Amino acid sequence: MKILLTVGVILVCDYTVLYAQDNVELPIEPEARAKLGEFSNSMGFPDGAADQFMKLRQDFAQKAEEKAKFLKWNNKLKIPDLDCDTNYDEETNKMKKELEEEHGSDYGKLIEAYEEDGEETDLTCLVPSRTEINCKSKKCDKKYIGICICGPKKCDVDDDGLCESGSLSVFTFGVFVNFCIFYLIVSFF
Predict the structure, then answer these.
(1) N or C terminus of the chain with fewer C-beta within 10 Å?
(2) The model scores a pTM over 0.85
(3) Within 28-169, where are the H helices?
């Protein structure tokens, strides 16, 4: 009986730890949507541009047969310094076109390319697994320039199940939680 109870608890914990994020339906939190709207307005984009951007992200995720994760605003997400001589929209569109020509309709490779080559562009926001967004604009002469970055960056896991930055992976965290629960259950019986 103890074993069945323990196995049941472990299975429930595995499900909640590993799959809780997939059950979120909303594409962006209200604060992030408001700030993205403010950014769009500061750039001179028409009303509703922020929603169009989110729709583009969701459409890309559907084509890639993935689910776009819920985006939240993160002011700590690093954005490169903006240069008034750089046309970020033009550079991003050029890079997007080149990557689409190179990878065609292989959305898996296209997502990888957006993560690697487009790391400091708006293309990071098309990556369905990204969960944070931050935007920055700057007034240059008579126009505004700006960029939005989505993160966090994809983590490369080493042999110990740790990200190269040193943080725990979800798998390692799940194993740790399972061992703690198992110990607590066994110690009571």
Answers:
(1) N
(2) no
(3) 30-42, 49-63, 88-103, 107-116
